């Protein structure tokens, strides 16, 4: 007997949406597992995987000098609970992944970062609702938030993986 997949429309049914909502509510957070994975990945591999896509994503803005105020500064993005996270800086015209803490830390849930990246909600609302929090040098964190909010950027896999940096 052959197995067939359900039609695409069935995957977006109210029952499927409700089932996924229940699973999200009762399944444990992936953050501890992601933190364990993140800590076991060597820094050179993180740099290899993350730097090129970030630099492609923001290439136009960097060429126009939009990131110049961040020269030599470090900012950490961190999932609630202290990990996983990534610290990046801007040196010599490029975004770099670095080890250690940031001068500013932007912390939130995976869902909040996803909402921010997909531009589904005004970034100010995410901060006012405390879904994202800035710690440390808040002026630096707000400057980054304002820069990202002002840029037109495409967070699609095609842009991240295939456009020249």
Quick take:
With 165 residues, the protein is α+β, with helices and mostly antiparallel strands. 49% of the residues lie in helices and 17% in strands.
What does this structure look like?
It is a single chain. With 165 residues, the protein is α+β, with helices and mostly antiparallel strands. It has a single domain (42-162), classed as SCP2 sterol-binding domain (Nonspecific Lipid-transfer Protein, Chain A). The protein is built from nine helices and five strands, in the order αααααββββααβαα. Strands 3-2-1-4-5 form a five-stranded mixed β-sheet. A hairpin with a 5-residue loop joins strand 1 and strand 2. It is globular, with a radius of gyration of 18 Å. It starts with 7 loop residues before the first helix and ends with a helix. The model has no long low-confidence stretch (mean pLDDT 80).
Instruction: Give the number of DSSP strands.
Output: 5
CATH superfamily: SCP2 sterol-binding domain
**Structure classification:** alpha+beta
> What percentage of residues falls in helices of 4 or more residues?
40-55%
Q: Calculate the mean pLDDT score and round it.
A: 80
Distance between the termini: 49 Å
Q: Given the C-alpha coordinates, what overall shape results?
A: globular
- The helix tally amounts to 9
**H/E topology pattern:** HHHHHEEEEHHEHH
Protein name: Ubiquinone biosynthesis accessory factor UbiT
Family: Belongs to the UbiT family.
Domain SCP2: 55-149
Function: Required for O(2)-independent ubiquinone (coenzyme Q) biosynthesis. Likely functions as an accessory factor.
């Amino acid at each position: 007997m052959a197995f067939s997949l359900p039609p695409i429309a069935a995957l977006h049914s109210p029952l499927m949406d409700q089932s996924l909502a229940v699973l999200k509510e009762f399944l444990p957070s992936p953050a501890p597992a992601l933190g364990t994975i993140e800590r076991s990945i060597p820094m050179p591999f993180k740099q290899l995987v993350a730097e090129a896509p970030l630099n492609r994503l923001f290439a136009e803005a960097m060429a126009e000098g939009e990131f110049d105020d961040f020269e030599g500064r470090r900012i950490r993005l961190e999932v609630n609970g202290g990990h996983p996270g990534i610290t990046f800086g801007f040196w010599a015209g490029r975004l770099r992944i670095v080890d250690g803490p940031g001068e500013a830390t932007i912390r939130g849930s995976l869902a909040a970062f996803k909402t921010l990246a997909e531009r589904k909600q005004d970034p100010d609302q995410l901060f006012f609702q405390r879904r994202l929090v800035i710690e440390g040098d808040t002026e630096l964190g707000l400057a980054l938030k304002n820069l990202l909010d002002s840029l037109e950027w495409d967070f699609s896999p095609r842009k991240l993986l295939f456009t020249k940096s």
